[in-house]
Amino acid sequence: MQNSPSPQTFRPASPLRGSIAVPGDKSISHRALILGACAVGETRVSGLLEGEDVLATAAALRSMGADIERTGDGEWRIHGVGVGGLLQPDAAIDCGNSGTSARLLMGLVASHGITASFTGDASLSKRPMGRVIEPLSRMGAGFTSSPGGRMPLMLEGADPAVPISYRLPVASAQVKSAVLLAGLNTPGITTVIEPVPTRDHSERMLRGFGAQIEVGEEDGARVIRLTGQVDLQPQVLTVPGDPSSAAFFMVAATLVESSDLTIRNVGMNPTRAGFVGVLRDMGASIEEVDAREVGGEPVADLRVRHAPLTGIEIDPALAPSMIDEFPVLFVAAALAQGTTITRGLEELRVKESDRLATMAAALTSIGARVEENENGLTVHGTGGEPLRGSANARVKTHLDHRIAMSMAVAGLASRDGVEIDDASPIATSFPGFESLLEQASSPEAA
Ligand SMILES: O=C(O)C1=C[C@@H](OP(=O)(O)O)[C@@H](O)[C@H](O)C1
Ligand SMILES: C=C(OP(=O)(O)O)C(=O)O
């Protein structure tokens, strides 16, 4: 999974035009495989993201007894083992670069009477797992982790597990989902209290699979109650396009003059769509065409035309609904007129890289003016003047796909182009990114 580094240069582009579709949503794809593996019978999924992160989840579920088969391009079939039916894996579960695989699968395993070790790449091995170790231990699971609650770690599941009521101390859909997935095979009611709402794909899909789940509001917090040990029914699912992947093309088309690009089939779940509103507030021209529902999720085609941007102050309350889009938002801000101020983004420090430090260094190295604060960046834009580019030093991406793609977009809006040190992590979430970029900016795309 960890390829040798593959440097790549992204040069100023011709306008992005025509119509493209981005790959399936990563969060929804992980969950479709996991819940399919917990149902008895055949679940069919189309539009599944075939990125390395999702493939790591598929491999893990196979190693615990689920029968998972690729039947065509994005078409997958899963024969599940039923709630509580996972088997002891023979080897360590390798989650590669994927925090979602690690945390959601730990939740799932925590309420089975099996033992599993979890490993990952150099990036994942630095990320905090204490946030799931803590609630899952309260449910009865045992953990032996590397120092600081890191991976590699060994998980001894509990059967029966103990239902808990857990108030999320961090706004994290991965932690919420880990507790809910553990709750699937836990007798009684598992409760998650979410003071700040995060993406709700788990709740939507659990309901779709027939889980007994109630979502309400109490004292301004979302409260999710799941009754355990209820059978799940296999489903036929269609995964919408990933809004976090679409964000790179939204910014690229906004920045490159004369662009007029339609991105088809983009997920517009309100818990994910914060970025579209923020980019519009900065002046972007994004039109939603044919808003509809696909697989229980709101979806639209987005027509994005070049427009000048203005710096703004971003409301920290929007952070969870656009958390993975900040790296590319910083690129947009670097080309805007005036200053963009962001705060409340401490979670960015524990993603695939420290995304505040990495983006501050990357943008500064290509000529942008950026100040790094404890919990955000302040970016002084050029007012549309191209950034210098990475004349003689490769930009460091720290095994982080979103940094690689953000700096690729920065290359399109630079004078000399941007060379990144390693494009291989892009395949974790967006296989085909480079060819789609070429396709959208080729003169025939119009
Ligand atoms: O639940 C999910 O699918 C995800 C939740 C977010 O992480 P956190 O839960 O750590 O915020 C996000 O950054 C990640 O890309 C996917
Ligand atoms: C944070 C991300 O993913 P994960 O946590 O699954 O590694 C991401 O895709 O930006």
Automatic annotation (TrEMBL):
The lineage of its organism: Bacteria, Pseudomonadati, Pseudomonadota, Alphaproteobacteria, Sphingomonadales. One of its GO terms (cellular component) is cytoplasm. PANTHER family: AROM/DEHYDROQUINATE SYNTHASE, PENTAFUNCTIONAL AROM POLYPEPTIDE. Pathway: Metabolic intermediate biosynthesis; chorismate biosynthesis; chorismate from D-erythrose 4-phosphate and phosphoenolpyruvate: step 6/7. One of its GO terms (molecular function) is 3-phosphoshikimate 1-carboxyvinyltransferase activity. Phosphoenolpyruvate binds at K26, G99, R127, Q174, R355, R402. 3-phosphoshikimate binds at K26, S27, R31, S172, Q174, D324, K351. It comes from Alteriqipengyuania lutimaris. Gene3D superfamilies: Enolpyruvate transferase domain (3.65.10.10). The active site is at D324. InterPro entries: Enolpyruvate_Tfrase_dom, Enolpyruvate_Tfrase_sf, EPSP_synthase, EPSP_synthase_CS, RNA3'P_cycl/enolpyr_Trfase_a/b. Residues 12-435 form the Enolpyruvate transferase domain. This is 3-phosphoshikimate 1-carboxyvinyltransferase. NCBIfam families: aroA. The gene is aroA. Monomer. It catalyses: 3-phosphoshikimate + phosphoenolpyruvate = 5-O-(1-carboxyvinyl)-3-phosphoshikimate + phosphate. Keywords: Amino-acid biosynthesis, Aromatic amino acid biosynthesis, Cytoplasm, Transferase. GO terms for biological process: amino acid biosynthetic process; aromatic amino acid family biosynthetic process; chorismate biosynthetic process. Catalyzes the transfer of the enolpyruvyl moiety of phosphoenolpyruvate (PEP) to the 5-hydroxyl of shikimate-3-phosphate (S3P) to produce enolpyruvyl shikimate-3-phosphate and inorganic phosphate. It is found in: Cytoplasm. Belongs to the EPSP synthase family. Its EC number is 2.5.1.19.
